[in-house]
Amino acid sequence: MPVEHVMGMPVRVEGSVDAARVFSWLRWVDATFSTYRPDSEVSRLDRGELREPHPLVRSVLERCDELRRETGGLFDVRAGGRLDPSGYVKGWAVQRAAAFGRGRFLIDAGGDVVLRGSWRVGIRHPYERDRLAAALTLSDCAVATSGAYERGPHILDPRTRRPAAGLSSVTVVGRDLGTADAYATAAFAAGDPRWTAPLAAMAIAGERVFTTPTWPGTGSRPAPSSSRRRPSAGALAARS
Questions:
Q1: Phi and psi of 42, rounded to 5°?
Q2: Which domain holds residue 139?
C-alpha cells in the first residue's frame, strides 16, 4: 500500500493504480500551487510577479470563481486576503490523479478520497482519533471532509475574515472531489448544518450529527430548513 507525504499530507493509494505517476503529479501540483513556497506560481501571482500563469492554474482559478458564485461567497480563495485556492486544489488534483488508475482503486489524500469500484470508507471523528463518525460502503465517487481537528482553525469565514465557527466537521459525497472539497469548505465556513440541505452531506456540531436526505448512510435524517444562502442543488448535481 504505497504512501507518500506530499502537499502537506499523507497520500495513500490502493488497488489498480500507478502510484508513481500519482505521486509525481501531486508533487508538480504542490510546486505550482503551494501557498507556502515563495517560488510557486500561486505565490508569484499573489505578489503580482507573474503575468501568464500555467493554463491549469488559470483553469483552477476560473473554477474557483465559479464556486464562489455558486456558494454565495462562502467559498472564497481570498477569504484571508491572500490568494489561496487550497480548498479546491487538493480535491481537484486527486480527482485528476484518478486518471492513473484502472478498475478498482482508491486514492486517499489526508482523508479526502476518490474511489472506483466498491469500498468501505471511514469518516474520522472530529474529537476522538480512534473513533469513526461514520462508515459507509460507496462506489465510484468522491468523499471530502472539512474541519479544524487536523490543522487547527485554518478555514476562514469570508464574511468576517475570522476562523469559521459553529461546526466541528462537514463531509460531502459527490462525483468530483474538487467540487465536493470546495462545498465542504463552504459549508464549514457557513457554520450552520442547515446550509448543507441540498448536498449529500453529514455535519457535526458539538455532540449533534446532522445528515441530509441524500447522505448515503443508513438511518439518515434531514437537517432542518434554513433561510441562509445555500448552494444550488442543480449546479452541484451537474458538477459534483
A1: -65, -40
A2: 3-239
Q: Are 15 and 106 in contact (CB under 8 A)?
A: yes
* Three-class SS state of 178: helix
Question: Strand 156-157 to strand 201-205: parallel, antiparallel, or no bridges (unpaired)?
Answer: unpaired
- What does DSSP say about strands 3-6 and 132-147: parallel, antiparallel, or unpaired? unpaired
User: What's the pLDDT at 236?
Assistant: 41
Q: How many domains does the chain have?
A: 1
**Rounded to whole angstroms, how far apart are CA atoms 46 and 216?**
39
pLDDT at 215 over 80: yes
Q: How many CA atoms lie within 13 A of 141 on its CB side?
A: 19
Triad 135, 136, 142: Cα angle to 5°: 120
Instruction: Please give the model's pTM, rounded to 2 decimal places.
Output: 0.88
Q: pLDDT digit string (tens) for 87-113?
A: 999 999 999 999 999 999 999 999 899
Reference 222, options 192, 208, 201, 207; nearest CA is: 201
* pLDDT for the residue 151: 61
- Domain CATH number, residue 167: 3.10.520.10
